[in-house]
Amino acid sequence: MLLQVQDVTMRFGGLTAVDRVTFAAAAGQITALIGPNGAGKTTLFNCITGFYRPSGGAILLHPPGAETGAAPVALHRLAGHRIARAGVARTFQNIRLFPGMTALENLLVAQHNALMATTGWGIGAVLGLSRYPAAERAAVEKAKQWLQATQLLDRADDPAGALPYGAQRRLEIARAMCTSPDGPALLCLDEPAAGLNPRESEELAKLLLQIRAGGTSILLIEHDMGVVMRISDRVVVLDHGQRIADGPPAEVRADPRVIAAYLGEEEVE
Ligand SMILES: Nc1ncnc2c1ncn2[C@@H]1O[C@H](COP(=O)(O)OP(=O)(O)OP(=O)(O)O)[C@@H](O)[C@H]1O
Ligand SMILES: [Mg+2]
To answer: Which residue has a Cα nearest atom 24 of ligand 1?
Structure first.
């Protein structure tokens, strides 16, 4: 088990956006988090990634490779940047790139923390120590590797803001993949297929399978049921802040509670 969400509640004043939600995301799997608009999906993501501190409950990360019996990391108590360092990366429902920087530069900035740690938080760079150019070269290499994986290598020097929408979505994923030195243990994606055409959605699905094959587990919020049903190992359904289903895609798709939650919203197909 990689991530455990236990009884997590998030309240905004009188509104309970997430209501005692429990589920687990297994290592090496794609776990989808679906539900109608306003179900609490993004709010739960914001709790997992440290943007919000949950009003109640626990969020535990069991880093892969840690010796058995090692204490899990209590994400619900950590600040956002420490959660990132623990190996949790994310993208946003609304694209957040540096539009005036090139695609390549966006991926270098994403690696900044890792790079600065290697160089003694800038001192090495100032003194021109030999480790720095090596770290910088490695950062450029990693950026290029992810530009390639997201089919953006030919756009490396274009400003991110000038890229077509689908390309910006892919760059966001590349950026998230660059935030941890060895690749994140868990990649959290908030509606990565939103606004993509069918061909782009198909490519996105392939990219996510490729990321999973590379050893990064994925937590996926997505409204595109074609993508969800095709690539997810497990599907968790939220409605009005509560978990109403949790299981393999085929089972969840046939669940009457899930169908009822989506009625008048969109088809579960
Ligand atoms: N910062 C906030 N302050 C107050 N209420 C909020 C806040 N963030 C979210 N909410 C409310 O919490 C509920 C859940 O919102 P959330 O954005 O998590 O839904 P969602 O499942 O991501 O929906 P969508 O599919 O539309 O993105 C909504 O009623 C929303 O208005
Ligand atoms: Mg949302």
So the answer is: 37
Type of residue numbered 260: A
d(CA 171, CA 114): 19
Q: What is the pLDDT of residue 269?
A: 47
Neighbours of ion ligand 2 (CB under 5 A): 42, 93
- pTM, whole model, 2 decimals? 0.91
Which residue from 9, 10, 11, 12 has its CB within 8 A of the most atoms of ligand 1, so it is best to mutate? 12
Contacts by residues 70-79 (CB-CB < 8 Å, ≥ 24 positions apart): 72/4, 75/48, 75/50, 76/8, 76/47, 78/50, 79/50
Counting ligand 1 atoms within 8 A of each CB, the residue from 41, 48, 223, 238 with the most, and so the one to mutate, is: 41
Q: Whose CA is nearest to atom 26 of ligand 1?
A: 37
Q: What are the pLDDT digits (tens) for 31-40?
A: 999 999 999 9
What is the identity of the amino acid at 228? V
What is the number of helices (H) and of strands (E) in the chain?
A: 11, 10
Ligand number, closest to the Cα atom of 92: 2
User: Comparing C-alpha atoms, which of 187, 231, 171, 189 is closest to residue 42?
Assistant: 189
Displacement of CA 20 from its chain's centroid (Å): 22
- Please report the atom of ligand 1 found closest to the CA of residue 223: 25
> What radius of gyration, in Å, describes the C-alpha atoms of the chain?
19
Distance 43 CA to ligand 1 centre (A): 6
Among 60-69, 130-139, 221-230, 244-253, whose mean pLDDT is lowest? 130-139
| C-alpha count within 13 angstroms, C-beta hemisphere, residue 53 | 4
